[in-house]
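PROTEIN DESIGN WORKSHEET
SECTION A - STRUCTURE
LENGTH: 405
TOKENS:
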């Protein structure tokens, strides 16, 4: 690793690049890093639309680089940084994210961009052999095989940040080469989302703000809607397939509203391993940053004496029709999960913009999956996957036009 010497302690520090620093995972990562100035040095921060927040972060952290997609916004940020005497270099455009993720001075990349836009920088970090902390689950859903090939070819260390996948990772023995035949299946837990007990006949009335009010986590708006439709869990099933090299039938879901058990591994001998804790993303983030060590995360300790009950129930596939699409697309032709992700992103954006109703999200996804033929398409390059992604978005957009809100 390219580590720098800490002038005060002489110890080496990891240089960290946070992709998506202004989001929920990005700011939680900064919170954990702020607790360990002896271990981590902030090298680069990237954002998309929240320029004021990025400016604030640059003033507080003084990273070597900051990046924004838009040249005018990047220019504005640069002027304002210089006015405050801050020397952070400002880059712009999508390529800047890849350059920073693969920069020779970076040790650790936190992939906290939302959506398929995160795939290219993740691939760049993987090829460059970085320690890659993956929150951006969509990157694996869009291009799982390509992504994992890049991780192996580049010698990267891929560490899951999604709380369920971090839990599975924490349950598995250090000797990971022998996981596969020790596991019967894994159980990904789900809160069930904010509408677990709501009458499905009223799903059409759900507003974006209601959908974004998650019971246990304050998250970005896209993942909040995904949690409400349970598409988040569908994406996580696909994510788990790639992270842990499991067959689709080895991945199951259980509803656990309290979100204390973050996921479980059921072994061949039916012994069950679970990881527990208060629901706080700083735990998986701290573990990813410090693995194989453990560092203080800022999360509250679990008080077992104050837990009323831990309950578990089966998921309701009728209430959440998108859930079954995880297994269907994993068993379908390669590229199907790319379509699933793109159509979901398009449908969620349309819902958040007030163009379609909550209960129409699934029909947009189902329509795109039905119409897009991925059989003949290539899937072995980023360009080929992005082509499928664009076709699915176009198909979804056309369908959305025909839907009345
Ligand atoms: P947010 O929406 O809060 O943050 C997303 C970040 O990505 C922001 O920094 C945003 O910039 C940036 N961004 C958005 N679009 C683009 C783009 N096209 N190109 C480059 N950057 C972009 O999301 P979350 O932090 O909630 O989630 C991030 C990822 O982590 C998602 O994949 C999510 O599924 C996953 N995750 C999140 C969890 C959570 O608790 N939040 C839990 C587990 C996984 P800006 O803000 O400047 O617009
Ligand atoms: Mg999760």
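SECTION B - SEQUENCE
RESIDUE ASSIGNMENT:
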């Amino acid at each position: 690793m390219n580590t720098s010497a800490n002038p005060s302690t002489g110890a080496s520090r990891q240089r960290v690049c946070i992709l998506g620093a202004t989001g929920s995972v990005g700011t939680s990562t900064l919170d954990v890093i702020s607790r360990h100035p002896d271990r981590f040095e902030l090298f680069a921060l990237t954002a998309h639309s929240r320029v004021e927040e990025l400016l604030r972060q640059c003033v507080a952290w003084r990273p070597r680089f900051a990046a924004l997609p838009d040249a005018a916004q990047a220019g504005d940020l640069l002027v304002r940084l210089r006015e405050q005497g801050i020397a952070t270099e400002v880059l712009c455009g999508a390529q800047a994210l890849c350059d920073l993720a693969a920069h020779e001075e970076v040790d650790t990349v936190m992939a906290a961009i939302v959506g398929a836009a995160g795939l290219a920088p993740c691939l760049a970090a993987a090829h460059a052999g970085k320690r890659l902390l993956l929150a951006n689950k969509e990157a694996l859903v869009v291009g799982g095989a390509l992504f994992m090939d890049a991780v192996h070819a580049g010698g990267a260390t891929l560490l899951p940040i999604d709380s369920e996948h971090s839990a599975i990772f924490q349950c598995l023995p250090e000797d990971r080469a022998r996981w596969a035949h020790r596991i019967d299946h894994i159980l990904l837990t789900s809160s069930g989302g904010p509408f677990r007990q709501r009458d499905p006949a009223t799903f059409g009335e759900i507003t974006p703000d209601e959908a974004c009010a998650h019971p246990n986590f304050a998250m970005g708006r896209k993942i909040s809607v995904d949690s409400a439709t349970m598409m988040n869990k569908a994406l996580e099933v696909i994510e788990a397939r790639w992270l842990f090299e499991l067959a689709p039938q080895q991945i199951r879901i259980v509803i656990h509203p309290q979100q204390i058990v973050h996921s479980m591994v059921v072994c061949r001998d039916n012994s069950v391993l679970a990881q527990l804790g208060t629901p706080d993303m700083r735990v998986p983030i701290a573990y990813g940053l410090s693995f194989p060590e453990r560092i203080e995360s800022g999360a509250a300790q679990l008080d077992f004496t104050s837990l009323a009950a831990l309950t578990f129930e089966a998921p309701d596939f009728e209430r959440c029709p998108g859930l079954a699409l995880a297994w269907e697309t994993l068993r379908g032709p390669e590229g199907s999960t790319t379509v699933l992700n793109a159509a979901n992103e398009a449908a969620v954006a349309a819902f958040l913009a007030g163009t379609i109703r909550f209960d129409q999200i699934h029909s947009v996804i189902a329509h795109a999956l039905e119409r897009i033929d991925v059989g003949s398409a290539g899937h072995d390059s980023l360009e080929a996957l992005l082509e499928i992604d664009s076709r699915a978005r176009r198909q979804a957009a056309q369908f959305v036009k025909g839907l009345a809100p």
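SECTION C - NOTES
The mean pLDDT is 94.
The chain has 15 helices and twelve strands.
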